[in-house]
């Protein structure tokens, strides 16, 4: 019996790694005006194997969206040139299935409500814990993977 359990655990681990390797090819756009936070998130995600693009503001985000396909959006709602909630609404109007993680420095329940109503998958109040952010990204992508495989059946 212990042999079967060990084989099952190994098999489960291999399947999990395979799923992660498929999902790691995703493109992530980080829209954040705080350079240090944006760079820290980008470096952390690149180490995980993600292809990361960075935008300092809403205008840069639109430039990237116009030339590149994005699989996940990480968005600060307090941008210098754009209301992040409006940016999220506009992007979701064009890309309704795009998962979005929204963050803000303001501890405001109404901001969280507006973000979720506008299509955010997850909402964070800064400071961000990178380990938690990466876990949420994995959850979003595993859910998407499960949806894709169940739709094929």
List the helices and strands and how they pair.
Elements lengths: L1 H22 L3 E5 L3 H13 L3 E5 L2 H10 L4 E5 L7 H11 L5 E5 L4 H9 L4 E4 L4 H23 L1
Parallel strand pairs: 1-2, 1-3, 3-4, 4-5
Description:
This protein is of the alpha/beta class and 153 residues long. The chain has a single domain, classed as 3-Layer(aba) Sandwich (Rossmann fold). The protein is 58% helix and 16% strand. The protein contains six helices and five strands; from the N terminus they run H-E-H-E-H-E-H-E-H-E-H. The chain has a five-stranded parallel β-sheet, sandwiched between helices. Helix 2 links the parallel strand 1 (27-31) and strand 2 (51-55). The two termini are 33 Å apart. Keywords: DNA-binding, Phosphoprotein.
């Amino acid at each position: 019996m212990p042999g079967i359990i060990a084989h099952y655990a190994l098999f489960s681990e291999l399947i999990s790694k395979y799923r992660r390797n498929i999902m790691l090819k995703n493109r992530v756009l980080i829209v954040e005006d705080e350079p240090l936070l944006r760079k820290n998130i980008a470096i952390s995600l690149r180490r995980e194997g993600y292809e990361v693009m960075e935008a300092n503001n809403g205008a840069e985000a639109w430039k990237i969206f116009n030339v590149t396909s994005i699989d996940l959006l990480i968005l600060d709602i307090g941008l210098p040139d754009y209301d992040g909630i409006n940016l999220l609404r506009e992007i979701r109007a064009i890309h309704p299935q795009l998962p979005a993680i929204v963050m803000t420095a303001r501890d405001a329940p109404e901001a969280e409500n507006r973000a979720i109503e506008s299509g955010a998958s997850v909402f964070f109040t800064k400071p961000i814990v990178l380990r938690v952010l990466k876990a949420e990204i994995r959850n979003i992508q595993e859910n998407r993977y499960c949806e894709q495989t169940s739709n094929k059946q």
